[in-house]
Predict the 3D structure of the following.
Amino acid sequence: MPLYEGLGGIGLINEKNTTVVLDLGAAYTKAGFAGEYGPRIITRSEVKCRETGQAVPVFQYKNQDELRHHIVDFIHKLYFRNLLVNPKDRRVVIVENLLCSSVVRDTLAKVLFRHYEVLSVLFVPSHLVALMTLGISTGLVLDLGHKEATLMPIYEGVVVFQAWQALPLGGRLIERSLSELLLDRAVAVTEDGSEHRLSAIMKEIPEKCLEDIKVRTCFVTTLERSSRLQSNKYDRSLEPPPPPSSVQYPLEGHHILTVPGTVREMAAEALFERDEDALTLATMVLDALLKCPIDTRHELAENLLILGGTASMKGMKHRILAEVRATAASEQYRHRLPIASFKIHHPPAKDNYVAWLGGAILGATEAVMLRSLPREQYLAGDVLPDWCNLTFNTRDDRDEKFA
């Protein structure tokens, strides 16, 4: 179950069968062993549908039975095709988002305990264990995933639940924006050498192709260039900044796509546009600080950690930091949140598996034995303790547990 106490005083263990660490993401899953520097495999969170035979996302399901089938097939692939170990001999650490659906957690636990008969399972919050890679216990952790951005303040190893923030700003939003821009502005060269608008060749760009174009060609522009682009968008008399160079990308069917420089630059701007409630990534950080105790705000602001696959985009962290500083200096926040210093950590791993590395560090300590849920205990009650269920978080239960 999630960690509520600090992580100090935890020693290393030396088990014969190393703990398996899983970080199941909406787009990609990281799997490996505790104590290692990186995951053994980073694979798409997809399985072959038993009815259609087509690849479908693991967490795209119609009912709980379909979700269970997806997880059974996916875990089987991870253990017997990628990790090549017997699940019955090993403990499991699941790196989870605290806002993960309880249905997914319960189904995952049922599959691991009943179908694969693992020794024990330990669910750990991804935001909390990410700080273990830095050796600190206080920080403001922003996870930019595929579907959404989630932010959790953590002070002295304890998650400040009342200040959590979440917005549907992630890699999928960038891909949607990129698709619209490409269909509107891009041209493609066909086999006979003639140029055509991309919208005349295809009506929809495949998701995997969009993701590849995003990773290979797109970047996040600076705040100053973004302001000039927005000014030119509403007032054509203002001179826009010179566009970046265009690049060519090979499409299926021997077509060569020309990605304009403006498209490469503007695709990620969707993350920084304010929604109807005037919310954006910068306001997430500042609103979270306002909900934290006043004596913790300065320390949290100077320990900002940004992780997730979307955070790997070129210029993303620099732009977020610039947006936070500019928004903090605005009239809306200047007097309510007088913080002049915002600093970002650089974790010792790639942004997309920082949380997994934190789980691997924790999995190599005594916590995996002391705080895991053993299979015998789960089978006795067939219930997975959940932080959002008050049945497991009442004062009487805590006092009785630690008496």
